[in-house]
Amino acid sequence: MPNHGGRYVQRIGRGSPSLGPDDVPMMQTLVKNYCLTKTIELDSEEARDVAHELLKWFQIGVTDKSRLQELLASHT
Known about the structure:
Strand content: under 5%
Helix content: 55-70%
């Protein structure tokens, strides 16, 4: 499996006033770990959808890593 962890988070996070430089690595790790757990290819449409959902949650104010992990765990 190619290791492109979080490339999509960087792309969709650009220009977002609420996503700081310290947040990008956290978001990348969350997406990568979710994909590894669910056996999802990091370059897949499903991985991009997960990154988009994660960014939406972050932008509405869910910025705590543990809470974001919980939300991802309940993501279907």
